[in-house]
Specification:
The protein is of the alpha/beta class. The chain contains 18 helices and 18 strands. It binds pyridoxal-5'-phosphate (PLP). InterPro entries: PyrdxlP-dep_Trfase, PyrdxlP-dep_Trfase_major, SelA-like, SelA_trans, SelA_trans_N_dom.
Length: 445
């Protein structure tokens, strides 16, 4: 039967002898709600939701008249495979949850950039304009010590580009105490060597002196690399050589600060920032955009104009360039209001406790075993190891952990002492209603 002959009426009666008689797919798909969903999400996604609902009806799990309702309820919110999650883990920058959450300003900048934009066009003159010129200007305003700026796909790409453009066929001198694995088996030394640069390791795991570096510097040196050991800490009999000492070696000093702080953050005194390290004499600083900067995934390159331009003009730069959505989100992060990451880091503990108490009381009213408890949050995302942030959480029975991941929006909490804790530090206050709704939905499952 062709599609335009399909009746929109879904039979409601169950013919005798066919207890689990289920309407045909094309008949179900003609329901106005599913026609609308097909336009919004595409027919294949809607069809698979319908198939799953029909299956449930045939198995007697739902009434046969409820196929459309079940299919509508099971539709994804978007055609993109990613589901939105409330981060109640207490880890501010959770790598598995996509690190930093974009500000409302950055989100609307992304939406605006979705269509045709002036990303490479100067609308005043009608001529070609430099890609990302306004975001590069914003970076330089935020980091006055940088002579130039460039943006690539992520922090790792910034290092690859630095190694390729400034040290291919040469040596990168790096301390043995700074040979870092970023996470998921990704090791910076492997990444650097993959570019064709050679690594010249100096010093020991716990101690590297200026003299260790000085002995290694020579005509083959591309640059000295200083890596902030962002996700671990070596304590005890240690000695690291600071950027200000390395400057005297007479070769470029490239510093990977990791977290993307552009200026000092008093809450995190151990975290390096771009402005301070450039002022201390680093030739160039590289960092991630989606850690403490609170922006989209990208890699920032800031520093001496000649070196940054050598990188920006290298053929590899084209392969590492970011799209217009990233440029839009980054600029809005730099120029816009405080980011969710900043707010989560700075929010005061009394407000967190109040929220935990209010949420728990509301849930208890609905018969749910919820209590407000003290909690401890961390920065995460490979930043600020060892830093503990006072926090507050809603404590639920442990079996909520699985159920909360199945509702929409999904909620990811943390299991602790046989309870499921929903830590509120990384949850924006405006998400409390959605969080409570998710717990109610999970309770009903
Ligand atoms: C996170 C990090 C990186 C990697 O940055 P990505 O943006 O994840 O590619 C590199 N170096 C340091 C010191 C880091 O902390």
């Amino acid at each position: 039967m062709s599609r335009d002959k399909v009746t929109t009426e879904v039979p409601r009666g169950i013919p005798a002898g066919h207890r689990n008689w289920v309407a045909r797919t094309d008949v179900v798909l003609a329901d106005p709600r599913l026609v609308e969903a097909s336009e919004r999400l595409g027919r294949p996604l809607v069809k698979s939701a319908v198939r799953a609902a029909q299956q449930q009806a045939r198995a007697g799990e739902i009434p046969t008249g409820a196929v459309v309702d079940a299919a509508v309820a099971a539709l994804p919110l978007t055609a993109g495979g990613l589901r939105s999650v409330i981060n109640a883990t207490g880890v501010l920058l959770h790598t598995n949850l996509g690190r930093a959450s974009l500000s409302a300003a950055a989100r609307s900048a992304v939406v605006c950039a979705c269509g045709p934009t002036d990303v490479e066009l100067d609308l005043d003159s009608g001529k070609r304009g430099r890609r990302g010129r306004t975001v590069l200007a914003a970076l330089r305003e935020k980091v006055p010590a940088a002579g130039a700026a460039h943006v690539v796909n992520n922090g790792a790409a910034a290092l690859v580009l630095a190694a390729t453009a400034l040290a291919a066929g040469k040596e990168i001198i790096v301390s043995r105490g700074e040979m870092v694995e970023i996470g998921d088996g990704f090791r910076l030394p492997d990444l650097l060597v993959s570019t064709g640069a050679r690594l010249r390791e100096v010093g020991t795991t716990n101690r590297t002196t200026l003299d260790d570096y000085a002995k290694a510097v020579g005509p083959r040196t591309g640059f000295v690399l200083k890596v902030h050991p962002s996700n671990f800490r070596i304590t005890g009999f240690t000695r690291a050589t600071g950027v200000e000492e390395l400057v005297g070696l007479g070769v470029p000093v490239v510093a990977d600060i990791g977290s993307g702080l552009l200026a000092p953050e008093p809450m995190l005194p151990e975290e390096p920032d771009a402005e301070s390290w450039l002022r201390a004499g680093a030739s160039m600083v590289t960092a991630s955009g989606d850690k403490l900067l609170g922006g989209p995934q990208c890699g920032l390159v800031l520093g001496q104009e000649d070196l940054v331009l050598r990188m920006a003009r290298h053929p590899l730069a084209r392969a590492l360039r970011v799209d217009k959505l990233t440029l839009a989100a980054l600029e809005a992060t730099l120029r816009g209001p405080r980011t969710p990451t900043y707010t989560a880091l700075h929010c005061d503990i009394t407000s967190l406790i109040e929220r935990a108490e209010r949420l728990s009381a509301g849930l208890r009213d609905a018969g749910i075993d919820a209590q407000a408890v003290d909690s401890e949050a961390t920065v995460g995302g490979g930043s600020a190891p060892g830093v503990v942030l006072d926090s507050a959480a809603v404590s639920l029975p442990a079996h909520y952990a699985d159920r909360l991941r199945a509702v929409s929006p999904a909620v990811v909490g943390r299991l602790d002492g046989g309870r499921c804790l929903l830590d509120l530090r990384a949850v924006p206050a405006e998400s409390d209603t959605a969080l409570a709704g998710a717990v109610h939905a999970a309770a009903g499952r």
